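Let's study today's protein:

:::
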Amino acid sequence: MDEDQPIKPANILNIVATNQGRRALTLGRPKAKPLTPDAVETLLNDGHYLVDARSSAAWGGGHIRGSINVQMSSSEFEQRVGWVVPDDAPIILLTDKDDDAQRCIYNMGFIGLDQFVAGFLEGGLTAWMDSGRPVETTPQMDVRTLHERLSTNGMRVLDVRETDEWDEGHIEGSLVMPYTHLAPQLGRPPRFDELGLPKDASIAVTCATANRSSTAIGLLLREGYAKLYNVTGGMEAWEHAGLPRVDAAGKACAI
């Protein structure tokens, strides 16, 4: 079954093409070129993917519509970009500082993704806002508020960790769908249809620490889901707060 197969290695098609000599490796240190807000808007309208490499909190506080939050602080940054951006898709970077964009493209070079970077938004989100363009926000929800809302109005919980993480302890009634399954995997389309969640449902998205969940929210927003909340601190915060969890068999986990 497809669901039992591992996900693709990040940017596998590009890696294979490079190994076979059909695509050259970048010689020297790759460099991202600066782009104006006008240029970024044009490229986005042409189908470029905007990877916002800031923290999940910064992205939640304000981001460009359609962007995907992959935190450059993650040791898996370039891998995660490769997992959530379609193969060979052109990419724009957005960072807190312009120098951070150069660090991002350097790391992306390890799996050949640097060749698909059209540039970075010079001046970051501030430049975008100063140009008069709008931003969107994603509300953050602390674990105690989530626990209360689950018992009062039936908010749904989507856990985007790996299945083995979910098996060890999760919020009772939560759905599990690894965030990588919300992006295309080789010939398999994103698996949004398996969620069984209406696009107007109130959904709290969680992972271990609120980083992968922020990435997942970007993918969900692109698909049309509207009422999304990022769970601050993720399941680590939930566990530290002493809130109830169950394992794969539905048995209560020790607190």
